[in-house]
Amino acid sequence: MPTITPDAVALIVISGAAKGTNALVPGKTGGTLRVGKAPTNDLVLPDSTVSRHHFSVERTADGIRVVDAGSTNGLRVGGAAIKEAIVTPGTLLEAGDVQLLVGVEARDAVLPPSPNDTFGLARGTSQGMRRIFTVLERIAKTPASILLVGETGTGKDILARSIHAKSTREGGPFEVVDCGAIAGTLIESELFGHERGAFTGAVSARTGAFERAAGGTLFLDELGELPLELQPKLLRVLEAREFRRVGGSKTIAANVRIVAATTRDLAREVEQGRFREDLFFRLAVVTLDIPPLRSRREEIPLLVEGLLEAAGATPDRRPDAATLSALMAYDWPGNVRELRNVIERTLHLSPIGFELANFPPRPNADNGSLFPASTFDASVSYRENRARVEEQFERSYIGWLLERHEGNVSAAAREARMDRNHLTDLATKYNLQRRRRGG
């Protein structure tokens, strides 16, 4: 595994025969990456429109500089022909007919951990989280799109808000679109807005998230749930930096920075045809894997303290050493979100001190039985008793599942490996629809 510089700048090929390959820019000032058709280049592009030695990427004191090497078909940055230019992550380069993206290849990189155990609202003392902070401290102020990948509840929302707060757009709006919580027929309107009469029910014009986030950050949560048929429209907006409302003819500038989050492996989704490769490249300029809480247990005391402070807990409402040990021993399938729920529930239910109730979660027990005797009714048949227990299980399980995911039906269905529509039907049957917490 190579040792890679803190910014881990890479050139990612997004079109042509070498699509999907990438090469890192050497870390020291003066380090150079050479690109062209000849096999002696650091990044080889086997394309007839690419010169043998087409251009180079140099690391300078001013930043990353690209320099045309006297190529036949020229070098373009953002569509404009250049001889040399300073670029940042997210910049699109064109060498002949081949497109390349300046990105950050932080995966599998050995990055020095940040000396800080916080990044904006996010906290983390583990090596993994502090390496993430290392990347974000350098990337937050650039226009680069960032993709946060991790299990539900790992803190992707908090990191997205922290990126916005540390960016040059901090004075602008922070807009959230949950791609998994909006019906597929409505998500286009949610993103781009619509004009009055654009479709049945559009009784008035509506601004979309791209307009509402103008000058700020648009956070696309649960990106992996974005319908395949809508993905080309989002790609066009990211490429052209403009869009139209549904049913409209006026072109509107898309002045937003994109941060996206997903629980899915989008690279695998691309391989299986469920996510567009070109959109993936556009959004994954910087990809960061957020580790689950069970792999960074040493952070739990710090996180608990932060959650208690946020809840306004008094100094006497703090866990003792034994309680902290119990919290650190648990696997936390719901990650930081589950930890927060446990802390808040304890503060509400424990009148004094900090005494955990029913922790870790476990099934009810009655003489070793999964169900207490009060579950059953001797006056009815076995079949009726079984139906009653199954209904109780169904209601309890669906309620627990939705609570874990704060009402996000897509994330809940994915974890339970059940059909999303079936889960929606069960939630409706038992009146368990839940609104997600704000933000």
TrEMBL record:
Keyword RNA-binding: no
UniProt domain FHA: residue ranges: 33-82
Key word Lipid biosynthesis present: no
PROSITE patterns: FHA_DOMAIN, SIGMA54_INTERACT_1, SIGMA54_INTERACT_2, SIGMA54_INTERACT_3, SIGMA54_INTERACT_4
Superkingdom: Bacteria
GO biological process: regulation of DNA-templated transcription
Keyword annotations from UniProtKB, A to Z: ATP-binding, DNA-binding, Nucleotide-binding, Transcription, Transcription regulation
Domain Sigma-54 factor interaction: 122-348
SUPFAM superfamilies xrefs: Homeodomain-like, P-loop containing nucleoside triphosphate hydrolases, SMAD/FHA domain
Pfam family, one: AAA_lid_14
Matches recorded under InterPro entries: AAA+_ATPase, AAA_lid_NorR, FHA_dom, Homeodomain-like_sf, P-loop_NTPase, Sigma_54_int, Sigma_54_int_dom_ATP-bd_1, Sigma_54_int_dom_ATP-bd_2
Gene Ontology terms for molecular function: ATP binding; DNA binding
PANTHER family: C4-DICARBOXYLATE TRANSPORT TRANSCRIPTIONAL REGULATORY PROTEIN DCTD, TRANSCRIPTIONAL REGULATORY PROTEIN
Protein name (record): Type IV fimbriae expression regulatory protein PilR
Annotated organism of origin: Labilithrix luteola
